[in-house]
Amino acid sequence: MKHDFEERRQKRIMNAKNRAKKNEQEAESLYKRAEEMAGVIPFGQPILVGHHSEKRDRNYREKIYNTYGKSFEKQDKATYYEEKAETIESNTAIFSDDPQALQKLEAKLKELQDNQDFMKATNRFIKKKDKAGFLALPYATEKLWEEVTTPNVMGDIGFAHYKLSNNNANIRRIKQRIEQLRKREQKQPFDKVINGVRIVENIEANRLQMVFDGKPNADFRKQLKSNGFRWSPTEGAWQRHISNWALHVAKEIVQGLNAE
Predict the structure, then answer these.
(1) What is the pLDDT of residues 2-19, one digit of tens each?
(2) 10, 16, 218, 225: least CB-packed within 10 angstroms?
(3) pLDDT over threshold 70, residue 260
(4) Rounded to the nearest 5°, which phi and psi values hold at 198?
C-alpha cells in the first residue's frame, strides 16, 4: 500500500487552491450576470404598483438579488479555501504519520531543552547581576539583557515562572510522543485476514486499514463511516488512525460478516 506524507500534504494544498480558484471564477461570473440583469432596468425605475408588470418585475428583481447573493457566497468560499491552503502550508505541527516525525520531535525536544536551560541560566545571572556571564550564553544579546532586566507591570524581572513551567510541560509532552513513536516502531503490526477482510496496521501511514474483496454493502459502509473509517482510493482501503480501539472496532465489524 502506498503512502507519501508530503505528497498527500501537497495534494491537500493544491485541492484547496483549485477550489479557491473555481469559486473565485464562479463568483465573478455570477456577479457579471447580475450586473447584466440589473442593466436591463432603467436607472431609478420604480416598481409600477398595480400595473400588470408588477409581479414579473418583482420576480426579476428578486432573481437579480439572489444572483448577487450567490456571487458573494462563492467569494466567501474562495476566501475560505485560500486561507485553508495558507494554513496547511504554514502549519509546523509534527504529525505522527510524517515519516520524519521522530527526527522532527527529537529536534523539537532539543530546542525546548536548550530554551529551558537558557531561561534558567538567565534568571541565575540576573539574580547575581552578572551581565558578563549572561552575555557568554548562546543567543544572549545586549538587547535581550535590557528586556529581561526591565521590570514588567508587576515589577518582576527575568523569565517568569509560568514560562519555565509551560516550556517544561511541552518538554514532557514531546518526550511522551517520542516514546509512543518508538514503541510503535518496535511493535509488530497487526496484519490478519478475518472473514475475508484484511485488517492491517499500516505503521508508515499511521492508519488501521481494512481491505475488502470488493465493495462492502451499504450497511457495512454505514458501520465503517459511523466508526470513523473513511475510504481512501489511493490506499484502496477503509482506514482511520491506529489505536487499540480502532482495532477492536474493526474486528467487531468484520465478525458481523458471519451473521450476515
Answers:
(1) 557 777 788 889 999 999
(2) 218
(3) no
(4) -85, 125
Cα 216 to the center of its chain, rounded Å: 29
pLDDT tens per residue across span 112-134: 999 999 999 999 999 999 999 99
- The H-assigned helical ranges of the chain are 5-39, 54-90, 101-128, 131-135, 142-148, 161-186, 218-226, 244-259
Task: Return the higher-pLDDT residue of 222 and 52.
Answer: 222
Closest to 45 measured CA to CA, from 34, 30, 32, 58:
58
Residue 130 three-state SS: coil
Half-sphere exposure of 172 (CA within 13 A, CB side): 6
**Distance from C-alpha of 200 to C-alpha of 195, rounded to nearest angstrom:** 14
Instruction: Give residues with Cβ within 8 angstroms of 212, minimum separation 6.
Output: 196, 197, 238
Is residue 148 scored above 70 in pLDDT? Answer: yes
Instruction: Report DSSP state, residue 21.
Output: H
Under a CB-based contact definition with an 8 Å cutoff, are residues 179 and 186 in contact?
no
